[in-house]
Design brief:
Low-confidence stretches: 98-111
Order of helices and strands: HHHHHHHHHEHHHHHHHHHEH
Structural class: mainly alpha
Number of strands: 2
InterPro entries: DUF6596, RNA_pol_sigma-70_dom, RNA_pol_sigma70_r2, RNA_pol_sigma70_r4_t2, RNA_pol_sigma_r2, RNA_pol_sigma_r3/r4-like, WH-like_DNA-bd_sf
Largest sheet: 2 strands, parallel
Strand order of the largest sheet: 1-2
Protein name: RNA polymerase sigma factor
Length: about 425
C-alpha cells in the first residue's frame, strides 16, 4: 500500500470512527473539547506511524487506545490531584489494563449511548443555531474546519471561532453530557432534527455561491440521520426526517443539468431518480407512520413532509402526481406547524389542482407577511403563476425581483432567464 493509499485509508477511517471516538472519550472525560483534542492527537499519531507500520487490523481500536493513553499522560503531566480527575485517570488506566491495543474494541459497549449523548450535546440550545451546525459537522460529521467553511461559504476563521466558542460555552455553562428525559427529550430532539435538516437543506439548495447543490452536505446529513434512527428506533419523527431526506436526495442527479444549471422538479428526468434511495425513504416513511399510529399521536411535521415527497416519488411522470393528496398534506402540515412558507407551498399545489388563479389568490394573501419579506421564492412562485395566466409583464418583474433577492448564482441565472423569456414572449 502506497503512502497515498494509506492517507486515504486514514481519512476514511477518521470519517467513520471520529464521532464514536469523541463520544466515548467525552463520556470518560466529561469534556467535549478535550475529547476532540485527544481524538485529533490520535489522528496525528496515525498519520505519523501508519505509513511506516501499515494500517492496523482494527484501526478504530488503535485510535481509541492511543487517545486513551494520551488522556492518561495529560492527566498525569498536569498533576491534577482533584478527586474527579483522579477518578477519570483510574477509569482510563483500568480500561487499558484489560485491553490489548491490537484487539481493543474501539466502540466500547455503550457506544450507542455515547453517540446519542454527543448528538444532544452538540445541538444543545445553549448554543446559537450556527454554532450547533458547525459543532455537529465537526464532532459527528468528521469534517475539518476548512471543509465546513467551504460548505457554508464562510471564512475559515469565522467557523473556527464558532467551534471554539461553542466548546467553551458548553464547558462554562457546565452542560451535562447526557440524553435528556421526558418532556425535555421531545423539546431537545426537535432541535437536533432541525439542525440535521438545516445541514441537508444547505446541501440540497445552497443559499449562496456558484453551485445549485452541495451533495457532500446532503450525504453528511443523511449519515447523521441514519445514525440517529439507529440510536432512537422508536421515535417516529426521526424516521420521518430520514424518509424525507432519502426521498429528496434521490432526485439529486436530476436536479442539475450538464452545465450545473438548476432543473426544476416538474422538468426533471425521473429515470435519473435514485430508486434505491426512494425505496429506503418509503420504508422509513412506513416505519414512521406505524410508530405514529401505535402512539396515537398522528403524523409529525417531518413525516408529513416525507409523505408529500413520497407523492412525487411514486409518480412515474409529473402528470401522474397526486396533487390533491399533496394539497391535503400541506393543509395538515399547516395546522400542525402554521407557517407562511407552508402556505406558499400549498398555493403551488392548489394551482396544480384548481389552476394558477387559485394558487395566485392564496399567494397574494402572503405578500405582506413580514416573515417572507426577504424570501426570494415568494416572488418566484408568484412570477410562475402570473406567467401561466399570461400576465407576462408582471411575471417578468417578479422573476427579476426574485433574482435580486437570492444569493445563489445558479438560481439568479435561472430567474433572469425566466424574466427574459417573459419579456421576449410579451
Amino acid at each position: 500500500m502506497t503512502a497515498t493509499d494509506i492517507h486515504r485509508t486514514i481519512d476514511a477511517v477518521w470519517r467513520i470512527e471520529s464521532a464514536r471516538l469523541i463520544a466515548s472519550l467525552a463520556r470518560m472525560l466529561r469534556d467535549v473539547g478535550l475529547a476532540e483534542e485527544l481524538a485529533q492527537d490520535a489522528l496525528v499519531a496515525a498519520l505519523e506511524k501508519w505509513p511506516q507500520s501499515g494500517v492496523p487490523d482494527q484501526p478504530g481500536a488503535w485510535l481509541m487506545a492511543t487517545a486513551k493513553h494520551r488522556a492518561i499522560d495529560r492527566l498525569r503531566r498536569g498533576k491534577l490531584l482533584q478527586r474527579k480527575h483522579e477518578e477519570i485517570a483510574r477509569e482510563l488506566e483500568a480500561e487499558q489494563e484489560h485491553a490489548d491495543d491490537a484487539h481493543l474494541d474501539a466502540l466500547d459497549d455503550p457506544f450507542g449511548d455515547d453517540l446519542l449523548r454527543l448528538v444532544f450535546t452538540a445541538c444543545h440550545p445553549v448554543l446559537p443555531t450556527q454554532a450547533q451546525v458547525a459543532l455537529t459537522l465537526r464532532l459527528l460529521g468528521g469534517l475539518t474546519t476548512d471543509e465546513i467553511a467551504r460548505a457554508f461559504l464562510a471564512p475559515e476563521p469565522t467557523i473556527a471561532q464558532r467551534i471554539v466558542r461553542a466548546k467553551r460555552t458548553l464547558a462554562e455553562k457546565q452542560v451535562p453530557y447526557e440524553v435528556p428525559r421526558g418532556d425535555d427529550l421531545a423539546e431537545r430532539l426537535s432541535s437536533v432534527l432541525a439542525v440535521i435538516y438545516l445541514i441537508f437543506n444547505e446541501g440540497y439548495s445552497a443559499t449562496a455561491g456558484d453551485d445549485w447543490m452541495r451533495p457532500g452536505l446532503c450525504e453528511d446529513a443523511l449519515r447523521l440521520g441514519r445514525i440517529l434512527a439507529e440510536l432512537m428506533p422508536k421515535e417516529p419523527e426521526v424516521h420521518g426526517l430520514v424518509a424525507l431526506m432519502e426521498i429528496q436526495a434521490s432526485r439529486s442527479a436530476a436536479r442539475v443539468g450538464p452545465d450545473g444549471e438548476p432543473v426544476l422538479l416538474l422538468e426533471q428526468n425521473r429515470a435519473r431518480w435514485d430508486q434505491l434511495l426512494i425505496h429506503r425513504g418509503l420504508t422509513a416513511l412506513e416505519r414512521a407512520e406505524k410508530l405514529s399510529t401505535s402512539r396515537g399521536t398522528g403524523r409529525g411535521p417531518y413525516t408529513l413532509q416525507a409523505a408529500i415527497a413520497a407523492c412525487h416519488a411514486r409518480a412515474v411522470t409529473a402528470e401522474e402526481t397526486d396533487w390533491t393528496a399533496i394539497v391535503g398534506l400541506y393543509a395538515a402540515l399547516g395546522r400542525l406547524t402554521p407557517s407562511p412558507i407552508i402556505e406558499l407551498n400549498r398555493a403551488v399545489a392548489l394551482s396544480m389542482v384548481f389552476g394558477p388563479a387559485a394558487g395566485l389568490a392564496l399567494v397574494d394573501t402572503l405578500t405582506t407577511d413580514p416573515a417572507l419579506k426577504d424570501y426570494h421564492l415568494l416572488p418566484s412562485v408568484r412570477g410562475d403563476l402570473l406567467k401561466k395566466l399570461g400576465r407576462l409583464d408582471e411575471a417578468r418583474g417578479e422573476f427579476e425581483r426574485a433574482a435580486r433577492m437570492t444569493r445563489n448564482a445558479r438560481e439568479q441565472a435561472l430567474l433572469r432567464q425566466r424574466a427574459a423569456e417573459c419579456a421576449a414572449a410579451g
